[in-house]
Each structure stands twice: as structure tokens, then as C-alpha cells.
Design brief:
Helix content: 40-55%
Strand order of the largest sheet: 1-2-3-4-6-9
Oligomer: single chain
Bound molecules: ligand LG6FSS7D
Structural class: alpha/beta
Order of helices and strands: HHHHHHHEEHEHHEEHEEHHEHEHHHH
Number of strands: 9
Distance between the termini: 20 Å
Radius of gyration: 23 Å
């Protein structure tokens, strides 16, 4: 995990140790970006290097490696580093990427770098004036939170990353749940934007947050997770999951703490903890056996069996499955009717159902986090994460 501590995040930092940002007005920048799309002078290159630091969309490790390699080739020429050892995953990935450029000239590398940055800038979101933006609650980058018809909807909004939960998303979800618990809506709905409900914990969290002190990082992550799951245990109103597509990891385990789960028939439910060298969280070590029986829960939580929406419904994890083509229409129609029921009665009924076990659930949550804290420091976990980040393995 020492290699992970250095982190793929460091590719980013190492490749961009550069001069302070130049201030460029937007029209000048636009003009500039159309110019740099065509050329690759030293000045264009320097501006592109600065532009990279302003990108709002995280480009992903593959693109970061490409940027790193082109930057090194443009500034130093062909790869001149000794090849890192096979277990030095991060430096090996960087070396491979740079070395793959062979004898590409500095000038062509500069030009390719400029073009790549130009393409990345072109796909950045143009923030103001999007339709429907007026109803969006402010203050969230990784979520879209809206309130209407007595329903607060919290939507995971990192579709290009399959709605993986990065640190910011954990924080924003806690804030959104805190606010939804107190607002005047009757029910709260969580769903995902794009083809996935959510692919679970963002595995880059492991490299982004790890400083030199891995024990401290694991401890901080355990505190974050305990607080995060605690918000679901304590949520005071009916909480509904609209599982619009595949779900992996923590968004699945949390479902035991929801009151209703509606799923599209495209949804799948996957908790590959053993594959990742990890262990269950979200109170699933207690709720899943309780909901589906210990044998079915073991298949999911120990052996990582992926189940379909239909199977999840048969096992009691999902309330009802809808054809994907009518999922949104049917579910929202139904929820709008539910949201008109007397809100206090619904809240009190939910609390009657859940409160008896709250204390127990908090204890289970603490224990799961304690175990995970140690799992995150294991070699099994480090290898699984590095395999994903270095593109050697997906689920
Ligand atoms: C601090 C609290 C910790 C709580 C712990 C929770 C435990 C868990 O949640 S365990 C579950 C962790 N999740 C995974 O292991 C999923 C990893 N992702 C995948 O295996 C695949 O991405 C996929 C099967 C979900 C989808 O594969 P597909 O081929 O359709 O798409 P991709 O090209 O792989 O993904 C697009 C894009 O999204 C990035 N991405 C997807 N999932 C994650 C993730 N969990 N973490 C980080 N990044 C993820 C993927 O890298 C791609 O990014 P780029 O376009 O930049 O390459």
C-alpha cells in the first residue's frame, strides 16, 4: 500500500509542477483554445499546461497518464528513467505510458498535448443556463437535489464515473440527507443519473486520500463511513431508492436501511467485498441475513454473487421491479400519490418500524467500520485497488 500512498493522484501533481496560473478572460481563452487546437508552439503548450489545472471534470487515470507522458516527452524527450520494479505500480504505469511514446519528437508531443487539452476543455460543462437548473438546489456538485410535489429527490450525478462515490459525494450526501430530513417534503428519493445507479466507493479515494500515514487515512475513512451510514440509520422520513441501473458495493448494502426499493429490470446488485479484500458495510452484515436469510446473504456478501433485480425482489431486498422503458413514469406516478399522504403519520409509522433497532444498527455500523479500517490496510485490499486503477481488473 506504500505504492498506493504515493498514489495515482501524484501523477497529476508530478506532471504539473509548473508556473503560477495566468489569468485569462473567457473570450480570450476561447480564442486561445481554438488557436491551440490547431498548433503547438511553446506558448500554446504552456497555456495548455495551465488550462489543465482549471479543468472541472476529472479526466480519469488513463487520460492523466497520457498527459503525463506527453508532458515528459515534450519537456525531456524520450523516456530516460530506469524501468521501475513490477510492484511499484504507480511509477510502472507512468513509465509504461512515457516509454510507449518511443522517439516521438518534442514538438509533436507538445502539439499532441495541446490538442488533448483542447479536447478536454471542449467537453467541459457550460454551467449557467441549463434547462431546469432553476429548480436545482444550490451547493451540490456531485448530486442534483430537487424538491417538488412533496418529494425531495437526491440524484447521484457523476454519470461518466458510473456515479462512484468520491469523498465530496459522501459529504454532499450527508448534507443533502440532513437538509431533506428537515425540509417540508413528505418523502425522500435517492436515484442515479445515467446508466448506473452507482458503482460504489470511488476507488480513487484510496490514492487521493492516502498521505504518508496509511493508518491515519484508514482511520479517517472509517470515521467518514460511520458518520455517512449513521445518516441513513437516523433518517426520519420515508426513504425510497429508485435503482435505475446496476449498483455495486455501498449503494447496495445501504438498501437495507431504505423503506422502499423500486428497481428497473436493468438493475443488478453486486457486493464484491471479498474480491476487493474488503468486508461488508452499511449494516448489511445484519440487515441482509435478516432480509434474505443467511445463505442468500452469504452468497452476496462473502462470495460476491451478483443478482438481478428480479432475484433481489424474490429475496425481499427490492420492493418491486419495473420494465426499464416505463420505470421512471410508473414510479414517479406512484410516489406522487404516496407523497400526498399525511406526512406526520408517515414519519411516525416509519419511526415505529425502525426505532426499536436504531441503537443496535449504530453498534453494527461501528463494528463494520472497525473491521474495514483494518481491511483497508491489508495487502489484499491494496492489490485489488491497484489492479483496478492500473486497468488490470474490473469486476
Ligand atoms: C470511505 C468509505 C468507503 C466505503 C466502502 C465501500 C465499498 C464499496 O463500495 S466496494 C465497490 C467498489 N466499486 C468497484 O469496485 C467498482 C469498480 N468499477 C468497475 O468495476 C467498472 O467500472 C464497472 C463494472 C462498474 C463499469 O464498467 P464499464 O466498463 O461499464 O465502465 P468503466 O469504463 O469501467 O467506467 C467508466 C468510468 O468510471 C470509472 N469508475 C467506475 N466505477 C468506479 C469506481 N468505483 N471507482 C473509481 N472509478 C470508477 C472508470 O474508472 C471509468 O473512468 P475513466 O473513463 O476515467 O477511465
Amino acid at each position: 500500500m506504500a505504492a498506493a500512498a504515493a498514489g495515482l493522484a501524484s501523477i497529476w501533481r508530478l506532471s504539473h509542477r509548473l508556473r503560477p496560473l495566468q489569468v485569462i478572460s473567457f473570450p480570450v481563452l476561447q480564442l486561445h483554445m481554438s488557436r491551440i487546437a490547431m498548433g503547438g508552439s511553446q506558448k500554446d503548450f504552456e497555456m495548455a499546461v495551465n488550462q489543465v489545472k482549471r479543468l472541472k471534470n476529472e479526466p480519469g487515470n488513463e487520460v492523466k497518464l497520457k498527459l503525463y507522458a506527453l508532458y515528459k516527452q515534450a519537456t525531456e524527450g524520450p523516456c530516460n528513467m530506469p524501468k521501475p520494479g513490477m510492484f511499484d505500480f504507480i511509477n510502472k504505469a507512468k513509465w509504461d505510458s512515457w516509454n510507449a511514446l518511443g522517439n516521438l519528437s518534442k514538438e509533436t508531443a507538445r502539439q499532441n498535448y495541446v490538442e488533448l487539452v483542447s479536447n478536454l476543455s471542449a467537453s467541459e460543462p457550460s454551467s449557467p443556463g441549463k434547462p431546469g437548473a432553476g429548480r436545482k438546489q444550490a451547493g451540490y456538485d456531485t448530486l442534483v437535489v430537487t424538491s417538488e410535489d412533496g418529494i425531495t429527490k437526491i440524484m447521484f450525478n457523476r454519470p461518466t464515473k458510473k456515479n462512484a462515490l468520491n469523498h465530496q459525494m459522501y459529504q454532499e450526501l450527508m448534507a443533502a440527507l440532513e437538509a431533506a430530513g428537515k425540509d417540508d417534503s413528505a418523502i425522500t428519493v435517492i436515484t442515479g443519473n445515467g446508466d448506473y445507479y452507482s458503482s460504489g466507493n470511488d476507488l480513487n479515494n484510496f490514492t487521493d486520500s492516502l498521505q504518508d500515514d496509511i493508518e491515519k487515512s484508514a482511520q479517517n475513512a472509517a470515521i467518514l463511513l460511520r458518520n455517512f451510514v449513521g445518516c441513513f440509520i437516523d433518517f426520519p422520513k420515508p426513504l425510497i431508492a429508485m435503482v435505475n441501473g446496476p449498483a455495486v458495493g455501498i449503494p447496495v448494502t445501504l438498501l437495507g436501511l431504505f423503506d422502499i426499493i423500486y428497481a428497473s429490470d436493468r438493475a443488478t446488485f453486486h457486493t464484491p467485498f471479498s474480491h476487493l479484500g474488503q468486508s461488508p458495510e452499511g449494516c448489511s452484515s445484519y440487515m441482509f441475513p435478516k432480509i434474505m436469510g443467511s445463505a442468500k446473504a452469504a452468497e452476496m456478501l462473502i462470495f460476491g454473487k451478483k443478482i438481478t433485480a428480479k432475484e433481489a425482489c424474490a429475496q425481499g431486498l427490492v420492493t418491486e421491479v419495473f420494465p426499464d422503458s416505463t420505470f421512471q413514469k410508473e414510479v414517479w406516478t406512484r410516489l406522487k400519490v404516496y407523497a400526498k399522504l399525511p406526512p406526520n403519520a408517515m414519519r411516525i409509522s416509519k419511526q415505529l418500524i425502525r426505532n426499536m433497532e436504531k441503537e443496535k444498527l449504530h453498534a453494527i455500523n461501528s463494528e463494520e467500520c472497525r473491521v474495514l479500517q483494518s481491511r483497508w490496510q491489508s495487502e489484499e485490499c491494496a492489490n485489488a485497488v491497484m489492479n483496478f486503477l492500473s486497468r488490470k481488473a474490473k469486476l
